[in-house]
Design brief:
about 375 residues; alpha+beta; Aminopeptidase; nine-stranded mixed β-sheet; about 25% strand
Length: about 375
């Protein structure tokens, strides 16, 4: 018998998350408070005995004028993706969201498809015939991922086009960089850094860069660096209120959920970053730095301290989040890929995000609208 899906309380949802070794921070109840333009609802999957066997945070974004909405489950839901009857898990979710007025559903299965080691990525970048990660053989192909993708297609789901979160164009990275921590000593982590990373960490230590933990009052300092970084790296910055809201919401749910790190040198903060933790998974969330005194390597010092703290806390993985899958030397994001993989990280490809049109006319109209923005 297929599980049934219904709304659950934040407390039920949080207990479910706390009982798992790893759940995306985007699938915690508090994340809904970070997104005031979306209406958040915690969903629960119950088996015939009434036991909660799955959960998800659904974000509902109303359409202007029409009383319909887009439903989005970022990096979720948290269900048994290896279940033989996957349709039996997803169809009740679609029915529930339809009853909430959803005309289209987007989700991001937390299922890894392929992994490339740091050495494999380095070799791929040096290979002139390789233009994307997908052009080179992965180090690991995760069993079952292709089968899950095929079952989703047969159910009517379609892989979404990659995009940035902007209004209705919600999206999370399909490719990320992760540093494995489980079963490794701190010396193992240090030896996993490439030569440039080790040199930069030593430079920072010799120059006297100090990395400290900040608090909510330090968000303004972080934000000044963040706006400078946005201008330098050509992306649109989020408002300061977003980070204040994120801090308030996540720390209210768990005081250890979010941390702010600041790299000081000669009385000035040169770099800052936020770190998120859920279970044994740690994410580098937002980073910022100034162009001043880059020779003392504050960003490398910052990341190394965050990796060390994650290791000390018993985390299984340190997640650098999104990377480009392009290997084109002309792409300005390639430098970021080199930086993250240089820390001993592996490139990880998830199944990506998938769309299901509950109302095909409205779903198509939204797609046309977004393509013309």
């Amino acid at each position: 018998m297929s599980p049934h899906v219904k709304a659950i309380s934040r407390e039920e949802h949080l207990r479910f998350v706390a009982a798992r070794p790893s759940v995306s921070h985007l699938q915690t109840p508090a994340w809904g408070d970070v997104k005031p333009d979306w209406r958040a609802e915690s969903l629960g999957w119950f088996d015939e005995g009434g036991t909660l066997v799955g959960a998800g945070l659904a974000l509902l974004r109303p359409l202007p004028v029409l009383r319909r909405c887009l439903a989005y489950l970022p990096e979720g839901p948290v269900v048994d993706w290896d279940a033989a009857d996957l349709a039996g898990l997803l169809e009740p979710m679609l029915a529930h969201l339809r009853s909430r007025g959803a005309f289209s559903v987007k989700m991001g299965p937390p299922v890894v498809a392929r992994r490339w080691s740091a050495d494999a990525v380095k070799a791929a970048i040096a290979d002139p015939s390789a233009h994307r990660l997908g052009d080179v053989e992965p180090t690991v192909r995760e069993a079952g991922a292709d089968g899950i993708a095929e079952r989703l297609r047969r159910m009517g789901w379609r892989r979404a086009e990659a995009g940035a979160e902007d209004g209705f164009a919600a999206g999370q990275p399909r490719h990320v960089c992760q540093v494995p921590l489980a079963g490794r000593s701190l010396e193992d982590l240090r030896s996993g850094l490439n030569q440039q990373w080790r040199r930069n960490v030593k430079k920072a230590e010799k120059a006297g860069v100090k990395v400290v933990l900040g608090d909510q009052e330090d968000l303004a300092t972080f934000y000044e660096l963040y706006v400078e970084t946005a201008g330098r790296d050509r992306f649109r910055p989020r408002p300061l209120d977003y980070f204040r809201r994120m801090w308030t919401a996540l720390t209210a749910e768990d005081p250890d959920r979010v941390r702010l790190y600041l790299a000081h040198h000669d009385g000035e903060v040169l770099a800052a970053a936020t770190m998120l933790t859920v279970g044994d998974h740690v994410w580098y969330s937002y980073g910022a730095s100034t162009a001043r005194r880059r020779e003392v390597q504050p960003s490398s010092a910052l990341q190394w301290r965050m990796m060390c703290d994650a290791h000390e806390a018993g985390a299984a993985v340190y997640d650098f989040r999104g990377i480009t899958d392009t290997l084109d030397e002309d792409d300005h994001l390639l430098g970021l890929l080199r930086f993250k993989v240089g820390a001993g990280g592996q490139a990880v490809e998830y199944l990506g995000e998938w769309d299901y049109p509950l109302n095909k006319v409205l779903h198509k109209a939204l797609g046309l609208y977004m393509s013309r923005r």
